């Protein structure tokens, strides 16, 4: 088994607390507080929120690039969810987009950017998204339905129309997330109507290989324009651990629809991605039975094709 | 001294009966199976035990991979605080 010519991480984020509101961290902290209390070390939600907040100071992406280099990752898709409609945020969504422009200029050829816009901003938001494509050169749309809308609601269609015109993919968050958001809109099946109405637009179910996997797999099998990513595989709920889960996922004839992603920095801030890559590509790892075509597809070729870029060196 | 006290705290955080003995060279994630919750618990306990405030050191703490590395770092923070 060979590592692909260029590994692309199709799902990660800038670890910057300018781009993620505090309430998002507070929700994550609430779950961690229950766990730490059960383990006999009670830590307050506020304290954990503050610790998480202070861990996210990589505003220019330097730390991210360093860990990509260490892990052998050539390029990553930076996803920019728009939480600014539902949470009070330090900066507005346009400034967040511009921060990603700066990051990209600082680290040329390392990032593609999928810009998020909450559809409830209406025309102003649609215009901003189109400018992110035409002026900033961003490569896709990121949607975060748990903010309170279905990805098949007609309020989102103007964004899909822009994607159709510019041939851009859409990455849609699926599965539970910070408990300060609404999980009812996190179901992979909710993409069905949008995928049917916009057959020329490709949709990637973010976390589809980890959350609500059965629904995500069926959607990928039967909707030609639906894909899934495997982020954040290290925290999948599986008693045999993530290598066993991925071995099974990769054995189901869906590898042409699967793209690799880490969801950095959400679950791998401490370790970096290197140890995960080493385990993935080890002799007895979850890729051991895969043909090279599938490995290349999952780890780079498919996401490059989805964003319409050449793949390889 | 710092290392002994730290090893005790680390033991409290790694509650698994199968956890290996904590040494200076033990790596938090690979050897001790640390999750992000374990890391949070450890930092909170270190603050209590050593009476130091680590909030301003989160970025550096996240880079530390071994128990020995953490002991060195805590010693330097504690020395600066005096
Ligand atoms: Zn994500």
TrEMBL record, chain B:
The Carrier domain sits at: 1-78
Protein's UniProt name:
Acyl carrier protein
Q: Which InterPro entries match?
A: ACP-like_sf, PP-bd_ACP, Ppantetheine_attach_site
- Cross-referenced SUPFAM superfamilies: ACP-like (SSF47336)
Look up keyword Phosphoprotein and say if it applies: yes
One Pfam family in the UniProt entry: PP-binding
Q: Which UniProt keywords apply?
A: Phosphopantetheine, Phosphoprotein
Q: Which domain of life is it from?
A: Bacteria
């Amino acid at each position: 088994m060979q590592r692909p010519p260029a590994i692309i991480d199709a799902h990660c984020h800038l670890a910057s607390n300018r781009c993620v509101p505090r309430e998002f961290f507070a929700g994550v902290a609430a779950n961690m507080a229950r766990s730490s209390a059960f383990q006999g070390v009670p830590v307050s939600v506020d304290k954990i929120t503050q610790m998480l907040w202070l861990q996210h100071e990589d505003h220019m992406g330097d730390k991210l690039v360093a860990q990509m280099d260490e892990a052998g990752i050539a390029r990553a898709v930076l996803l920019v969810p728009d939480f600014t409609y539902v949470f009070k945020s330090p900066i507005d969504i346009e400034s967040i987009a511009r921060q990603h422009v700066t990051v990209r200029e600082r680290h040329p050829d390392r990032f593609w950017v999928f810009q998020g816009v909450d559809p409830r901003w209406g025309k102003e938001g649609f215009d901003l998204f189109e400018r992110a494509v035409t002026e900033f050169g961003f490569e896709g749309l990121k949607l975060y339905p748990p903010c309170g809308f279905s990805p098949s609601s007609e309020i989102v269609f103007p964004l899909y129309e822009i994607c159709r015109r510019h041939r851009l993919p859409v990455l849609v968050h699926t599965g539970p997330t910070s408990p300060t958001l609404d999980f009812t809109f996190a179901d992979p099946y909710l993409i069905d109507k949008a995928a049917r109405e916009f057959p020329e637009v490709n949709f990637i179910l973010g976390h589809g290989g980890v959350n609500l996997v059965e629904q995500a797999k069926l959607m990928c099998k039967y909707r030609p324009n639906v894909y899934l990513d495997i982020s954040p595989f290290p925290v999948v709920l599986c008693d045999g651990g993530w290598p066993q889960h991925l071995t099974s996922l990769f054995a189901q004839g869906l590898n042409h629809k699967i793209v690799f992603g880490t969801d950095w920095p959400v679950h791998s801030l401490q370790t970096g991605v290197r140890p995960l890559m080493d385990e993935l590509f080890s002799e007895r790892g979850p890729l051991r039975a895969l043909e090279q075509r599938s490995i290349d597809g999952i780890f780079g070729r498919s996401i490059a094709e989805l964003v319409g870029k050449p793949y390889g060196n | 001294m710092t290392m002994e006290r730290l090893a005790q705290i680390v033991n409290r955080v790694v509650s698994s009966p199968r956890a290996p003995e904590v040494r200076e060279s033990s790596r938090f994630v690979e050897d001790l199976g640390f999750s992000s919750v374990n890391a949070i618990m450890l930092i909170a306990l270190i603050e209590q035990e050593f009476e130091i405030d680590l909030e301003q050191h989160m970025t550096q703490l996240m880079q530390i991979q071994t128990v020995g590395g953490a002991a060195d770092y805590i010693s330097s923070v504690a020395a600066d605080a005096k």
